[in-house]
Amino acid sequence: MKVLLTGGTGYVGRMLREKIHEDGHQVRLLVRKGSPYAASPSDPYEVVRGDIMDTHACLHAADGCEAVVNLVGIIREYPRDGTTYQAMHTEATYNIVDAARRMGIERFVQMSALGARPDARSQYHVTKFEAEEIVRRSNMRWTIFRPSVIFHPGCEFMQQLVDLVRRPVVPVIDGGKALLQPVSLENVTGPMARCLRMPEAQDRVYETGGPDRIPFVDLVGRVASHYKVWMNTIPVSSGFLRPLVRAMQRFSTFPLTVDQMEMLIEDNVCDPEPFRQAFGIEKLDSFLEALPSLLDAVERKAA
């Protein structure tokens, strides 16, 4: 089938477009005009230039396709540019769902996030859930994936951890006890591509995490140990820090927003067995086993 992939030039999208193509589908990418992505003659993808916030661009991109996979999302807001969770999660999903329905597309795959729910403290998770609801109400045959933090050699998540442990002082919010359950990029993109051919995956939500649950403070400690550096940690309560972060988050160079802080202080875990069994994954990739090679990849990238 011909599959429209939005967000196909991003971190997840680059691997997913390959997986979808390898599975025998034609892939069309909706690429915004300001994107640095340049299609080469050897690329097996069709490229349509346009913005997901533009109704006409979405209709043009969806025309002739039989399925849509939507990856569009952000991890930080820049309100001055109009880059908000409400816009990029809720409104963008509405636009592409509406275009898909008007073009007669029946299959839709949505990447959400682990922790998406209507009563979340973070607007990131609230708007991710709003986007899910738009997909569920579409009357298309949908599948929703809710991945935890996604890891892969050279990923931004690992770079952020390395930068953190190299700071003179490492703030630990509320003891850093919140649990993370990172999942590999391979374990996310393979099933997302395969689900297009799986009727049993339709009208299902898959919470997607790896086999390891680790407190954030322990994770940071392991990274510091790898580099043989001593961390000067300072405990900070979220109640004390929240007003400061709210005042400083308008500066793009400030490393944290209130929304991101809210996500850092709550567990982000799931039972991965239903997901693993549904897609026949023999063994989910272990983040802790991969950690040394992931950190080596950060060093190679910096060299």
What's the layout of helices and strands?
Layout: E1 2-6, H1 11-22, E2 26-31, E3 45-49, H2 55-62, E4 67-70, H3 85-102, E5 107-111, H4 123-136, E6 141-147, E7 150-151, H5 156-165, E8 170-173, E9 179-180, E10 183-184, H6 185-194, E11 204-208, E12 214-215, H7 216-226, E13 233-236, H8 238-248, H9 258-264, H10 273-278, H11 287-302
Parallel strand pairs: 1-2, 1-4, 2-3, 4-5, 5-6, 6-11, 7-10, 8-13
Antiparallel strand pairs: 9-12
Describe this structure in words.
This protein is α/β, with parallel strands linked by helices and 303 residues long. The protein has a domain at 2-149 and 184-209 and 269-284: NAD(P)-binding Rossmann-like Domain (Rossmann fold), CATH 3.40.50. The protein has eleven helices and 13 strands. The protein has a seven-stranded parallel beta sheet, sandwiched between helices. α1 (11-22) crosses α6, α2 (55-62) packs across α3 (85-102) and α5 (156-165) crosses α7 (216-226). The longest helix has 18 residues, at 85-102. The protein is globular, with a radius of gyration of 20 Å. The mean pLDDT is 95.
Quick structural gist:
This protein is of the alpha/beta class and 303 residues long.
Oligomer: single chain
Beta-sheet strand percentage?
A: 15-25%
Mean pLDDT: 95
Gyration radius, in Å: 20 Å
Biggest β-sheet: strands ordered side by side in the sheet: 3-2-1-4-5-6-11
- In terms of per-residue confidence, which ranges show pLDDT below 50 for 5 or more consecutive residues? none
Range of helix content = 40-55%
Look at the helices and sheets and give the structural class.
Answer: alpha/beta
CATH homologous superfamily descriptor of one domain: NAD(P)-binding Rossmann-like Domain
Secondary-structure element order, as H and E?
EHEEHEHEHEEHEEEHEEHEHHHH
